[in-house]
User: Fold these one by one.
Assistant:
Number 1:
Amino acid sequence: MKYILSFILLIPLLASCQAEKSALSKYPFQVGDIVFDEKLDDKNFKRCTPKESYGYQYYNDSKGFEYKGEKLKIEKELKALQLKSLGKENGYITIRFLVNCEGRTGLFRIQEMNEEYLKTNFDKKFLGALFKFTKDLSGWIPKEIQGKKIDYYQYLTFKIKHGEVSEILP
């Protein structure tokens, strides 16, 4: 009788575990993964790790941000372009992308925010120039975790003051 009562009490617990498992399956594998979009992405860009694998971030190893010549080189190259927006807007433009195991980039996504972190739209020509600049950067260093080459997500956030880039983050 004691075992039957215990079994009866376990049935609702087992049923709730199954319900929770099916509810979780509605969510993407990894929050923040960039999904290929044929309208935006280069079909020739190849991922080195399977789509089902964990999406590594640039900071998932002890090396962090890795670019040949460091961030200083990126800043110098951008400064040489002397990009200026037609407007005098302030805010942030973040360009996030994937670096594959060969150091090539793809799956670019852009987010534009004002100083209050609300969605905004910057001058299209200025935004296009920043996007092209980021896409053309070719010094990304491939990463390895536990001896295996991986793809990783990287981003550059351009802080805009009075229509000009005042800082590059991270």
Number 2:
Amino acid sequence: MLAKLKQFLTSHTEAVTPEEQERQLRLAAVSLLLEVVYADETLSDNEADLLPQLLTSSMQLSIDEANELINEAKLIQGNATSLYEFTQEINQQCSVEQKQKLILAMWQLAYADGQLCQYEDQIVRRTAELLYLKHSELIQMRNLAIETQRSQ
């Protein structure tokens, strides 16, 4: 477990294959999503159902691959000391549009149980800052997530 965390954190300085870079990027994104899920210290059924769905649709993964990625990210996320560990990887490899999609997914998870707790809000906002997104982009993604939640 600690070896995986160390490998994740030092990956940007080592030569890795494109497949490994993709895996590390996915782990970083899922770890950020888990930060939102666990922010209110409860995992609702809606959140538990939505997370794998978001991964299968956005990352073109099978449900088994999504669950495997979630389990691996739980180990990494649980040992992380800051959001920066994950956002650094995303900043290096993702476009603004990809970052916006990640923030949208974070908002969707935050609103999945029908209420937004202050800790979920803080994590999404801090992540958006670390991803160098504009405040207007953050609000646009939040509003889109709220509209999606209402239409379901």
Number 3:
Amino acid sequence: MAHAAPGPRTVSRRPGTIRVFSDRTRSVAKLAVPVVLGLVYGYWAAANARYGGPITGWNLLFGFLTALVFAVLCAALLNIAPKLRREVHAVLWAAFSGIAIGFLVNQSHTSVLRSTVLGLATAAAVFAFLFYRYYTHEDAKGHRIE
């Protein structure tokens, strides 16, 4: 007897919420999003590092290594951070964002002071936004409140 393929789930594990994507789509996205963001970030860092000069093998290697590090750290944060308390969750994403922006600015041959200030400003803005979001949407243990 033939069985129909299961469709996307419409109800999540938490009562009262609706899931738009299936479990398979969510698991593919957990891998694809960091890879795509990493490739964009690596290209951006390599473009900043060459500063309008020719593309060389070292520049390509730098871009791919930067993309790899970014993608691995992003994937790790996507898996680990939601399991932590909201304060630590927000701090981790703020640190990741601030370091990423500071590194990009530093690759564009500007002063270390400028890259530090922009990285810290980005980290502060990301922390303020995410802490507010987690504080208003989760309880102290990290469970979503409706």
